[in-house]
Queue: 2 jobs
Job 1
Amino acid sequence: MKKFLNTADTYLTDALAGFAAAHPDLSVNLESRVVTRARGAVPGKVGLVSGGGSGHEPLHTGFVGEGMLDAACPGEIFTSPVPDQVVEAVRAADSGEGTVLIVKNYTGDVMNFEMAAELAGEEGRRVETVLVDDDVAVEDSTFTAGRRGTGATLLVEKIAGAAAARGDALEEVAAIGRRVDAASRSFAVALTACTTPSAGRPGFDLPEDEVEVGVGIHGEPGRRREKLRSASEIVSDMVDAVLDDRPLESGAEAIVVVNGMGGTPLSELYLVYGEVAALLEERGVSIVRNAVGDYVTSLDMAGCSITVCEAEEGFTDLWDAPVSTPGLRWGI
Amino acid sequence: MKKFLNTADTYLTDALAGFAAAHPDLSVNLESRVVTRARGAVPGKVGLVSGGGSGHEPLHTGFVGEGMLDAACPGEIFTSPVPDQVVEAVRAADSGEGTVLIVKNYTGDVMNFEMAAELAGEEGRRVETVLVDDDVAVEDSTFTAGRRGTGATLLVEKIAGAAAARGDALEEVAAIGRRVDAASRSFAVALTACTTPSAGRPGFDLPEDEVEVGVGIHGEPGRRREKLRSASEIVSDMVDAVLDDRPLESGAEAIVVVNGMGGTPLSELYLVYGEVAALLEERGVSIVRNAVGDYVTSLDMAGCSITVCEAEEGFTDLWDAPVSTPGLRWGI
Amino acid sequence: MDIELARAWVRAIGAAVERDRERLGELDAAIGDGDHGANMQRGFAAAVDAVGAMSPESVGAVLTKTGTTLVSKVGGASGPLYGSAFRAAGKRLAAERAETEEVGAALSAALEEVRRLGGAQAGDKTMVDAFAPAVDAFTRVAGSGGRLDEAARAAADAADEGLRATEPLQARKGRASYLGERSVGHLDPGAASTALVFRALAEAAGA
Amino acid sequence: MDIELARAWVRAIGAAVERDRERLGELDAAIGDGDHGANMQRGFAAAVDAVGAMSPESVGAVLTKTGTTLVSKVGGASGPLYGSAFRAAGKRLAAERAETEEVGAALSAALEEVRRLGGAQAGDKTMVDAFAPAVDAFTRVAGSGGRLDEAARAAADAADEGLRATEPLQARKGRASYLGERSVGHLDPGAASTALVFRALAEAAGA
Ligand SMILES: Nc1ncnc2c1ncn2[C@@H]1O[C@H](COP(=O)(O)OP(=O)(O)O)[C@@H](O)[C@H]1O
Ligand SMILES: Nc1ncnc2c1ncn2[C@@H]1O[C@H](COP(=O)(O)OP(=O)(O)O)[C@@H](O)[C@H]1O
Ligand SMILES: [Mg+2]
Ligand SMILES: [Mg+2]
Ligand SMILES: [Mg+2]
Ligand SMILES: [Mg+2]
C-alpha cells in the first residue's frame, strides 16, 4: 500500500488533526470525532448535521461551515459513525430550532442515526431525518437495502444548508432536502479499486482493460464488469441509466455534478462533463448549474459519478446562496 | 492505460470543451487554445497571463477569472504553449496597461514565452515576465536549467492577480509576483508515476515499496528513489529541504500549500499538512494562511508537494482578496 | 451461566475476532466494504476492557455493558445489530446466575432484536442465517435438559452450518445486496462473525 | 540543393519522426517528460503540409517556412530550437539553388542559433552534441569539394556518433539536467532527433 500515513490505526486521527490545523474556523474534537463551526450553533437557525464513514472527503467534514452543515461526524473509514457521535453533533448544532440529519441510505448509517435520533429525542430535541438515496445502480426493491446515497449528498447538503441559513423552519429545511434527493439520480463507474489503510490492498482486482460499472463509494464491487470503452460510450450508458430511472422532459432544467472518486485527474472529469453536457443538450435538457470535481470520494479510487438533479423551483437560488466551507465556497 | 478518454489525440480538446461547457463565464477558444474571461480585458487593469503544458489542472486554465488571471494558454500535455498562443492570450488580456506573463521556469516555457514577448513587443505592447522557480529539488546552478516552477505558481498567480485587480501598475504587479516567487520554496514526492494519454503507460516504474523524491510536475523521475517510509519521516525530510534552502527565523509568518499531484486523496493531503504544521510550529514559524488540495497537478500521479512562502508585507491581504475562478474562489 | 463465565465469553469473542480479523475483513471486501473485521475487533476489544473494568451484579450486566460498548464503538451495520442483541440478552438475565434455559430465552430475545432492527429474513444472507439456527439448536438442547456447554456446542455447530449455507445465497439485505447476483458464491461476513460468537460461548462454557 | 530537394528533405524528416515517434518518446520519458516524439511528429507533419502547399521562390523559403511552422506548432524546448534553426538556415539561402558549401554555411548558422537560444555547450547532453559534429563534418566535406550527398552522409554519420556519445554524459541543460547523475546512461532525445534530421538529408540527397 502506498499512502502518506504513519500507521493504519492512526490514519483517520492524523488526517483529522491536519484538517483541524488547516481550518481554524472549524473546531474538531478528535476525542468525540465531531467537527463543528468554531462559533457554535447559530441562534435562530435550524441545525444541519451529517456524517458517515470516512474516506469520502471532502464529504462530510469539508462541508461544515456557513451556508452548509453545522456539524459533521466522521466514522471510521467506510464505517458509519456511532450514535454517540451523532448525538454529540446534534447537541452542537441545535440552537433550539431543531436539527436536520442528512443520512446516506446505508443499513449501518440508517441504524446508527436512528438510534441517535431516539437519544436526541429523549433529550427533548426536535430532529428530522433526510435520507439520501440517489444511486440508480441499485434497484430500489425488497431485494436490496434500497438505493445508496452518493453524489446527490452534495446537493442536499448545500441546498438544505442554504434553506436553513435563510431561516426556514425545521420541517421546511427537511422538506427541501427530501425534494432535492427525490429530484436527483446518480451512477458511478470505477477504473480502479480503492485501498483502505487497514486492508492495505485494493478491495478488488480489476484487469487493466476492465472497469467496474455501477459502483458505490465504499470500494465495494459494482453491478457488473465491462471492457474499458471510450469515454463517450461509457458516459452515454451512465446518462441513460440516470435518465431511464427518472426521465427529464425536453425543456427541463438540471443541476449536474460530475464527481471524481479521488484518483481521477480534473481534466478527465471535465472531459466526462463535456460528454454529459452534449447528451443532455440532445435531449433538450439545459444544465443551469454544474459542479465538476472531487466531492464525494472513495479514497484513491479512480472513477467518477454523474448526478443529474432536476432544478425544481428554488433549487438554483439556494445553490447560488453564499457558502463558506473547506470543500465548497463562494459569495463569502 | 485506464482513463476516461476517447482518443489520445483528442484528449486535450475534449477536456477543454468540457471545461468550456462547465464555465460559461470564461471563453475558451479551442482553435487558438486560449482561455479568457468572457467579459474580456478589464479596462484600466494590468493584464495577467500564464500558461504552460497541460496536465496540471486546475493550473492554469482553472485560475482564469476575477482576481487572478485574465487569460491562460494551455499547451499540449507537459509541453509549453507555442508563441502564437501566448501572443493571442496577451492580446486578449491587454487593456492598454500592459501585461504580466507568469512563466514557470522550464527551458521550453522560457523560450516560447520569450519569443511571444518579442512578438507582443513588436505590436507595441508592454510586457513584463515573472519567472517562477521554487522547486528546491533542483539546485540552481550552471549545471542545471535552474530551479523548476511548481507549487508557488498558485501563490504568484493569486497574489499578483489581486495586485492587478487592486489597480497596481505593470511594474508593481510584476514586482510583487517576483517577491512571492523569491519568498517561496517547494519540494515534491511521488508515490506513483503518471500516465500521459499519448504514452499510454506510466513514465517510470516504481516498485510497490519505493517513492520518487524530488520529482517535478511533468512525470519526470525525481532526484532519487527511497523506500517508502512513514508520512512523518517523509514530510520532515521535505520540510527540511524547503527550509534549508531558505531558512525562516522563529517568529516568521508563512503561507503553506500542500498540493496534491492528482491521484492522492484529500485525507492524505490533510495528514501531510498536519505534519507540516507541527514541524513549522516547532521552528516557531506561524502559518498565517494555507491551501490544501489539488492545484498544480501531474495528471494521475499520486504524490504531493509542499510549498512554504514567507508571508512578507502585503502578501496575506492580497491572498485574502476576492477571487472567482474554477480552481480558487472566495469573497465573490 | 455465572458472571465470570459471561466475562469469559466476551473475552473469548474478543480473542476470536482479533485472530480472525483479516478473514472477516476479506469476506467483507468480497461482497461489502471490507471493514467487518476491523469493526468486530475494535468493538470487542473495547467490550473486553469494559467488562473487565466493571464489578457487575448480574450476568445481564455483563452482556448489557458489552452491547452498550459495541453500539458506541463499532458503528456500521454490525454495531447496532450486535450491540442491541447483547443488550436485549442482558435485559433478560438480572440474576448472578442464569439457568441454561434462561440463557436460551435471552439468546432468543437477542435474535428477535436483530430481526426487528435489521428486518432480515432467513435466507437474506445476513448474520441472521447463522444466528437463528444457533438459537434454535441452543434452546432445543437446553429444553431437553442439556448443560450450557452442550447447548453452546450445538449452537456453535448450527451457526457454522448456517454460515456455510450463506455461500450460495443472493444477499437481500445490507451492502452485499448491492451486488445482486454477484453476491452469490461468497460467505456472509456477519454470519461468519456470528459463528465465532457462538463458538466462543462453547469454548468458554467447555473450559 | 534545389527547392525540390529542400522539400524532399522536410518530407524525409517527417517520415522519420513519424516512424520513430515512439522511440523518441521513450528516450524522453527516461530523462525528461516523454513528449519529444509527439512534439517532433506534430511539428514536422505540419511542416510537410506547409511546404507542400506553398510555391517557394527559393530553397531558403522552404526552410524558413519549415522553421516558422515548427515554432508555431511544437512548443516545448525543441520547437523554438529547431524552428529557429531552420529559419536561420533559410535566411542564408535566398536563391533557387544552393551550392553545397552554401548549404554548409546555412547549417552553421542554424547551429549558431541553437547555441545562442539554448546556451548549451558541447557535452551538455543536448541536440548540440549531435548538431555540432554533423555541421563540422558537412562543412569539411563540402569545403574539400564533396557533393551534397557525400557531405550529408558524413554529417549523418557524425550526428549518429555524437548521439552515441551523449549516453555517458550528465545533462546540464533542459529537463534532463533535473535528474543530476541519474541522466547518465541514457541517450539524449533531442540528439536522437537531430541524427534523424541529418540522416533524412542524406537520404533525400542520395535519392
Ligand atoms: N439488515 C440486516 N440485518 C441483519 N444483518 C445485517 C443487515 N445488514 C447487514 N447485516 C450484517 O452486517 C454485516 C456487515 O457488517 P459490517 O461490515 O460491520 O457493517 P457495514 O456493512 O456497515 O460495513 C453483513 O455481513 C451482515 O451479516
Ligand atoms: N538549452 C538547450 N539547448 C539545446 N538543446 C536543448 C536545450 N534544452 C533542451 N534541449 C533539447 O531538447 C530536447 C527535449 O525536447 P522536448 O522534449 O521536445 O522539449 P521539452 O524538454 O520541453 O519537453 C532535449 O533532449 C535536448 O536535446
Ligand atoms: Mg462499513
Ligand atoms: Mg515537454
Ligand atoms: Mg462492512
Ligand atoms: Mg520532453
Note: Chain C has one domain: 3-202.
Job 2
Amino acid sequence: MSRYTAVTDADRAAMLDAIGVSSLEEIFEAQIPAGVRLQGGLDLPDGLPEQDVYAHLLELSKKNTSAEDEITFLGAGMYDHYIPAAIDMLLGRSEFLTPYTPYQPEVSQGGLQVMFEYQTSICELTGLDVSNASVYEGPSAVAAAGYLAKLAAPKRPLYLVSAALHPDSRQTLETLSVGYGTEVVEVPLKDGATDAVALKALLDEHGDQVSAVVFQQPNFLGAIEDVQALSDLAHEQGALSICQADPIALGVLEAPGNQGVDVCVGEGQALGNRLDFGGPSFGFFAATNAHIRRMPGRIAGETTDADGRRGFVLTLQTREQHIRREKATSNICTSQALNALAGVVYLTWLGRDGLVELGELLIQRTHYARQALTAIDGVSALHDQPVVREFAITLPSDVEVGEVIALAQDRGVNPGFDLGRVRDEWNGGLLVALTEQRSRKDIDRLAEVLAESITAARNGERSPLGPSAPKQEVVA
Amino acid sequence: MSRYTAVTDADRAAMLDAIGVSSLEEIFEAQIPAGVRLQGGLDLPDGLPEQDVYAHLLELSKKNTSAEDEITFLGAGMYDHYIPAAIDMLLGRSEFLTPYTPYQPEVSQGGLQVMFEYQTSICELTGLDVSNASVYEGPSAVAAAGYLAKLAAPKRPLYLVSAALHPDSRQTLETLSVGYGTEVVEVPLKDGATDAVALKALLDEHGDQVSAVVFQQPNFLGAIEDVQALSDLAHEQGALSICQADPIALGVLEAPGNQGVDVCVGEGQALGNRLDFGGPSFGFFAATNAHIRRMPGRIAGETTDADGRRGFVLTLQTREQHIRREKATSNICTSQALNALAGVVYLTWLGRDGLVELGELLIQRTHYARQALTAIDGVSALHDQPVVREFAITLPSDVEVGEVIALAQDRGVNPGFDLGRVRDEWNGGLLVALTEQRSRKDIDRLAEVLAESITAARNGERSPLGPSAPKQEVVA
Amino acid sequence: MSAVDETQTIAYDRPPADASSATPMQREHATTIFEKGQPGRRAFEAPALDVPLVDGLIPASARRAEPARLPNVSEPELVRHYVRLSRRNFDLDSGFYPLGSCTMKHNPRLHERVTALSGHARLHPLQDPKRSQGALELMYNLEHALGEVAGLPHVCLQPSAGSHGELAGVLVTRAYHEARGEHRTKVLAPDTAHGTNPATVTMAGYEVVPVKTSPDGGVDVEDLRAKADDQVACLMLTNPNTLGVFDPNIEEIAKIVHGIGATLYYDGANLNAVMGISRPGDMGFDIVHYNLHKSFTQPHGGGGPGSGPIAVSDRIAPYLPVPVIQKLADGTFDLTSTPAQGPGSKSIGKLRGFQGNYGCFVRSYAYICSLGGPGLQDASETAVLNANYLLARLQDLVGDKLPLAFGDKCMHEFVLSGTVMKREVGIRILDLAKRLLDHGYHPPTVYFPLLVDEALLIEPTETETKETLDAFAEAIADIIREAQDDPTIAQNAPYTTPVRRLDEAKAAKRPVLRQPL
Amino acid sequence: MSAVDETQTIAYDRPPADASSATPMQREHATTIFEKGQPGRRAFEAPALDVPLVDGLIPASARRAEPARLPNVSEPELVRHYVRLSRRNFDLDSGFYPLGSCTMKHNPRLHERVTALSGHARLHPLQDPKRSQGALELMYNLEHALGEVAGLPHVCLQPSAGSHGELAGVLVTRAYHEARGEHRTKVLAPDTAHGTNPATVTMAGYEVVPVKTSPDGGVDVEDLRAKADDQVACLMLTNPNTLGVFDPNIEEIAKIVHGIGATLYYDGANLNAVMGISRPGDMGFDIVHYNLHKSFTQPHGGGGPGSGPIAVSDRIAPYLPVPVIQKLADGTFDLTSTPAQGPGSKSIGKLRGFQGNYGCFVRSYAYICSLGGPGLQDASETAVLNANYLLARLQDLVGDKLPLAFGDKCMHEFVLSGTVMKREVGIRILDLAKRLLDHGYHPPTVYFPLLVDEALLIEPTETETKETLDAFAEAIADIIREAQDDPTIAQNAPYTTPVRRLDEAKAAKRPVLRQPL
Ligand SMILES: Cc1ncc(COP(=O)(O)O)c(C=O)c1O
Ligand SMILES: Cc1ncc(COP(=O)(O)O)c(C=O)c1O
C-alpha cells in the first residue's frame, strides 16, 4: 500500500473473499500465461516520501537556467510572457484540472462552455468561421491543416511551403505527410519574406498538384508577410491558403481570415501558457465554413436541455475517431483542453483593448531593440521587413554566433536564437524576441552585453560551458 | 477605474442618475464636513500593472535568506517543516480562502465542519475536553489562557511563570495583563528545566494570590518538563496549570490533559503553516470542561437541520463579544480559520501513526545532532535534560555567538538561535532546532560548519554582514 | 451556491413542498474525517531513519501512553474529503457577498502568488535582520503607506486583527495616561459600536460608558458632553460608523475629547469609505487601527487570518509595541525591541510573537502597489457610489417595506430596517436572509447594529458590477413579493442549500464540540 | 455533484415531478463571457511605454481594421465567471470517476507543485542543453524508467498523447519496412480496438483490416492467421484489451505476427493493469505507447494535456523521432537531432515542436519517484483487485441484469452488458448512466467497446477505497430496483445536474459553434 492507495490487509482479505479467490496471485495466474509473467518485479528504485521527491525535483530545476534566472530574448516559437495569477488559480481548481473529456455533458457544462468561449475567441482572433477546441501544439496544428488540405483535394500530392515557416512546423508536416504520400516543395524568400514571384512560378509549374500553400505570419524571421497576396496566388490554382500565425501579433495584424486564408493555425503557448521547456501548450485550428466537416478534434456546440435551458455538448462527432474510426478526419482524441482554457482566460484578461495595447507596446519596444542592436559595430539587420515582436540580425562574420550567445549568457543575458542551427544560409544570424516582460532597461542591457560578448569572442574569450548548442536542426 | 473595479463612465452616469445626484462629489459634500476633507489626494505613487507588482515583490523576496536558501536549524518557536502540496491546493480553493466567519451556517458547512474536525484533533493532541476554533498565535494563546485564569479567579493577581516559557509568550502575557492588573513572578530553572522546589516555595509564599502557573513543554530550551509535578503543585494552591506545548512534540509526549494541565495552548505554525516571517499562523487553545464557558473565540458545535440532517453551527456564542459585549470572555473576533484548516489537514495527513513516526524520527536525529555538536572542541551542552526536537549548547566563551552564527550563515548554514538575545545568563548559548527536513547529511554539515566558524571567529575572521542580530529582546 | 447576476434567467419557481428534490449534497450525510479511513491507511510517509537508533532517550514517564486518535486516510481520501467540504461553502469568488461591516471586496490572486515566493513564505521570523532586508523594507514601506492613508505618522503592524489593534490602542492610551501620572477609569463608546470595542475596553481594565446616537445617526454630542469627564481615558469611534453615517460633528467631538485630555480612537473597520477622501488623523483621531483583511483585501479565510496594524500621533508613539522597524543611515533596515527614542522608546512591550502577520503585509502591500494613491481613492469613491446606488435601487423597489434607518444617503454601507416588513409582510429579516440563500446570494449582515430593530446592514464594496447590484435588488424585491402571497415560503427557507435551517438552540443546550471517538 | 461514499445516508428520494426544485445552478441561465462586461472594463493593464514612440512601423495594409471582439471585463468578473463555470463540472477530486479505458486515478498535488518550480515552468525549449541539464537528466531518467516498465530499451518521449504515439509507432513501422525495401499496405487491428487505432492507420497511409474477437474475449487466432499475409505491416493490440481481458494467446499471436515479418504494436492505454506484472516487451511487442495521463497520473485537464511516449526494440530504434537525448561520456546530457548511430540515426524526423510535453514528464517522473518499482506494481495489483472486487459486488447484486460480457474475472477493468436490463427492466445503459449522475457519480464508459451491445466499461483504478466501491455498487442496484418500479425515472434522468439531458441531435443539425456577436 502506498500513500495513494487504500487497501489495508483487512480490506484485501474481505475483497478476495468476495471475489472468491484466496490470493491476488490466483487472479493473475488465471489470466496471464506464465511465459509472460515478470519475475522479480521491476528493476527500479524504491519509492520516496513526498518531501524527498520534492527535494529531488527542486534540485533538478536548479540545474536549469530559466527565464527567471537570466534576461532572455529567446523566442522562435515560444515566448516568456507574464502569466496572470488568476490563470494559475483557475487551472489549479480540481474542477478544471482533474476531469477528462466531457463525455457526460450534464456534469461537464463548465468545460464545455469554456470550449465554446475558446472557439469564439479563436474565431475572433483569426477572422475565420469555425475553430475546434484545440490540437496538440503549433507544428502539429500545421500538419493537421495539411491533412485537411489532403482530405479536401486527395489528388493533389504537393504542399508549397515557405522557407520562413517555422522549421519544426516544416519538419512535422514532412514527417506526417510521408504516410499519405504528399510531398513538400519549398518556396524561397526575398529579403526575409516569402518570394511571391517564386511562389507564382512554382504554382504555374505544379498547378493542380498543389493542395495547399503554407506560410507563417509573422514568419520565422519575424517579418510580416503579404498574406493577401500569398492567398490569392494559392487560390488562383485552386490550392488552399494555410497560415500559421502568432496569436499575440494578431492583435495588431489583419486577421488572416480577412486576407483569404482558408485555414489558420498556430502555437497557443504565448496565450497564458508556461514555457515548460516546450510543452504542454496548445495548437489552435480555425477554418472557413467550407471545411467544417473536415476539422480535426473536439468541437463544442450550443443546444438546449430537456427543460429548455441553454447548454453545450461536443458536436459534429461524426468527424471523429470514436465514431468514424478509419474514416475519421483525424486520429486525435485527448488534446489540450486545460491549455486552451489558459488561452481563453488569457485573452479575456487582456480584453478587447488590452490585446491591441500589448501588440502596440511590442511593436515599439521591438523597433527600439532592433535599432539598438543594429547600431552595434559590425551587426546588421538580416532583413528590413516590418516586424511586430521578433527580428533577425547578422553578427560579424569573424565571430561564432554560438560563442557569442554563450558569452552573453555568462553575463546574464540570453540574446536569442542562433539561426545557423536551422539553415546554413542563415549562418551568423541571431533571432531576437520581445515580450512585455522585457523593458527598455533590459533591452539596453542586451545591447551592452551583446557588444561586449562580440568583442570578447573576438579576443578569444570562451565560455566555460563552451559554445551554445551547435547546428543540429538543419533543414536545408 | 482600476482592474479591480468595474464602473464605466456610462455606468457611473446611470448610477448617479438613479441616486438623484449630479456628481459623486455631491454625495461626499452632503456628508463629510469640509474641514476634514482631504485635499489633493494621497501622497502615494500611482498604481502598477500586475506584472510590475510581481517583479517588485519577487525582487524583495530575493533580498531575504529563506529556509530554501540555507540549511537552517533556526527554531525557537517556528519550525521549517515540509508542507504537503495538498495543503496549498486546499487553502487556495476560493471556497476556503474567500468567505468570512460562518455567520450563515447553511452555506458554511464546509468551514464549520472543518472547525469541528479541528477541535477534535486538538482535543486528541492535548488530551483535554474542549478546544476552540483558534486564536491568533502561540504567545497570544498564552495570554488568552492567562485571561481565562483571571476570569476563573478574579481575586488572584499573580501568575507564576517559568523562566523557560517562550520569551514572546512571557512578554505578551505581561503586556496584556497590565490592563487588568495581574503581575508576573518568574519561576527559576534548574539544569534547564523549571525548578519544582523553587515553584513550591513561591506557591507557599504567594498562596491564594496565584491564579495560574505557566510553563512550556518542551520548554524554550528544548527540555522536557515534569508536567505532572508542576500541575500538582499549582493545584495544591488552587491555581490553574497552564501549559504551552509544541504540537509536534505531543505526538510522543504524554498529553498535558493527562498530566493535570487545565489549559493547554500553543503555536500552531508547525502544523502545516508556512514560516511567513512569523505569521499568519494560529494559536490552539484547549481546556477542561470546567472552563468551557470561559473559552475565548469561536467554537463550532454539532446540531441538526429542519429535515433532521446533521449539521454544524457556531455555538456557545453568549461568551462572545458580538453578544455579550463588555461582558465577553475575550474581544477576539476574526481569528485564524484558514491557518487552523492547514493545521487539521496537516494532522490528518500525518495520521495516527505518522504523527508518532515523525516524533520518533526527530528524537533520534536531534540526539544525533546533540552528540555531534557537543563533540566539537569547546562546545558543551547548556543542559542535559531529555529533548525531542530542539536543544541548547554553549559555545566557547572566547567567541561571540552572533559572530559565529554570521560566519556559519556565510557558509550556507544557519546554526540556530542566539540565546544571549533573551537572557544575559544564557550568553554563549545556541538553541538548535530540527525538523524532518534536516537530514543526517545536513546535521553533519552543521557540525562541520559550526566547528569551522568557531575557529574562524577565534582567528578574527568577521562576516562582511557583521555579527548576527545583537541582544535586543532581553527579558532579564 | 452562486449568485445569479445574469439578466436573463429562467422564471423563479416555488420552493419544493417536500424534500423529494434533495440535491446530492443534501442527500449526503455529513461525515467527519474521523469517521472515515481505516487503520493502516496513510497519506504521510516518514523520511528514512538515517542516524543510529538509540533507545530510552525519553523517560517512560514523559512518553505518551495512547497515541492521539487522528484519522487514518490515504491521500486521495484526504483530498476528496476536504475538496467536497469546500463545496459546502459559499464564497466570494463565486457569488455576491454584501456582508455589512466586513468589506468583502475582491481578493486578487496576484497576492497569493507573491506571498508564496520562498523568499517570503519560508523566511524564519528570527532570521538576522541583515538577511531579511526585503521583508523589513516591505514592512517599512507598508507602514509609510498606511500612515499616509490614516494621516498619522507612526505605524505598528504587529496586531493580529482589528480587535487586537483595539486592545493595542487602548493599552497605549493607558500607558500614555499613566506616564502623565493619571489613572483614568472609563472609556466611552457609542451604542452603535461593534462588540469588540466594549469587550476590548474590559480586557484593558477600563469601564465602558455607552454614548447615545443622535437622530442623524451620529454621536449624540450632548450626551457625550455630559459623560466627558476627567476619568475618561478614551472615546472609541468608527467613522463612518456602523450605520454607514459619517459623523457630521466629528470636529466638535474631537474638540470635546481632547478638551478632557482623553484620546480619540478610530476603529478602522470602515476605512474603505474614506481612503484618500478624509483622514482620521485630520479628523483629530490619535489612534487608528486598520483591518488589512477588509480595506486592504487580505482574503478572509473563513474567519481569518487578519491583520490589525495601528497608527498613532507623535504623543502616543513612544508607547507603541515593540519590535519596531528602523531605517538606518546607510539605507538598510533594522528591527529593534529597545529603541533609544521615538516610537517604542517607552513601549507597552510585545503584543504577540515575532513581528506580526507578515503574510498579510505582503498581500496588502501588493494591493497598495497595484492601486497606488489614486487607485485607493477610486476604490473608496466607487464603494460609496455602489452603496448609494444599491440603496437607491432598493428604496425605489421596496422602500416602503425596508426603509433606510438613518438619513437619506450613505457612505460605503447602509442599514435598512425590517420592522415594517415584519409587521406588514409577516417575515423577519432572518427569513429574508435565508431566502436570499436560495437565490444564490450571501445575505447582508443581520441584526447589527443592535440599535436598529430588524437591521439589515448592506455593504456591496467597490469591486461589484452594476449588473450584480441590479440583480441583487431584484432578488430582494422578488422575495418580498413572494412573501406577500405566502410568507411561509421565506419562513421555511432555505431549500436548496446543503443543509436547511439549523437548530442553534439545540447546539448550545447540549454542546457537542468534537467528534466522539 | 459529489459521490456519496458514506455508509449512513438519508434515504434516497423520488426525483421531483416538476422543475419546482430547480437548484441555483439550474436557475442560472448559461451566459458566456462575451455576453458579460462593458466597454472600458479591463483586467489587464499594459506596462508603460518606456521607449520613444515611432509611427508607421507597420504598413497600413497589414494592420488590423477591426480589433478582435474579445470581452471587456474587470478581474473580479473574470474570476467569478470561470470559478462559477468550474463548479458546473464533475471532477475526480470530489467524486468517483470509473470511466473505463481512461484510468482516472488520483492526481497527487505534489506534481503540480514541482512542475510549477520556475526552473521547470519557465525553461525555454530552445535553451542551450548545457544550461538545461536538469530537464535533460529528468527526461533521461524517465525514458529509462518507462523502458523498464515496458521491457523495451529505447524510449522517445515526444508524442503528445496516445493517438500521437500510435501515429509515431505506425510511422516507424513504415520506415522500418521501407528501409528493408518492403512496401506493405495493411495494418491489422481487432474489432475491440479503440477508434484511434484505425484512424491512425489511415493517417499513416495504410489500410485497416479488422481481426475478430474470440468467445474468450481475446484475438480470434484463426482469423488472425487467415489475415496475416506479407502485405501486413503491423498488428495493433492493447493487452489487456478494452474488455479487460488479458489475451490468453498473446505468445502465439506474437509468433504469427513476427512470422510474417510484421511489427506488433502495443496500445498502452491499459498498461495500468500490468506494471511490474507483465511487460509488453516480454510478450513480444516491438513498439509500445504509454498514456502518461492514464497509467502515470498526469491530470486529464478536461481533455488534455496528455503525453504518449513510445518505446521500441533495437531493430526499430534507428527510426525513432528526433531530437534524442544522449548521456555523454562526462555524465552530462545532450539533445541531438542528428545522432550518428543508434536511436534516431535513421529517424522519421520530427513529430512536433521541440521535445514534447515536458510538464507532463515532470509529473510522471515525480510519480515514478514516489512509487518506485514496488509501488508501481502495487498500483497495478490494486487496480486489478479493485476491479475484480467491484465486478464481484455487482455480479452479486445485479448479475442477472448486468452480466459480465466475457469470462468471469477481469484485469483492471471489465465490461458489463445491458441487453438483459434493457429487455427486462426497460432502461438502457444510457439511462442508468444518467441516473448515476443524480447519485453523485460519474458514469463508467458507455457503448464502448462497440463489440458489446449496451456496453458498460468500468475501471475503478487503484486509488479508490473499498467503501467507495461498495457504495457505487449499491447505487447501481438502487437504480435498477427503482427502474423496476418505474423505468421513467431513469429514462428522464438526470434531475439535479446543472442542466438536464441535452439535445445532441439539435446541436449537430444546426451547429452553433461560437457565441454570436
Ligand atoms: C466595526 C468593526 N469593528 C471591529 C471589528 C473587529 O475586527 P476583527 O474581526 O478584525 O477583530 C469589526 C469586524 O468584524 C468591525 O466590523
Ligand atoms: C484503448 C485506448 N487507446 C488509445 C487511446 C487514445 O489515447 P489518447 O486519448 O491519449 O490519444 C485511448 C484513450 O482514450 C484508449 O482508451
Note: Chain B has a mean pLDDT of 96.
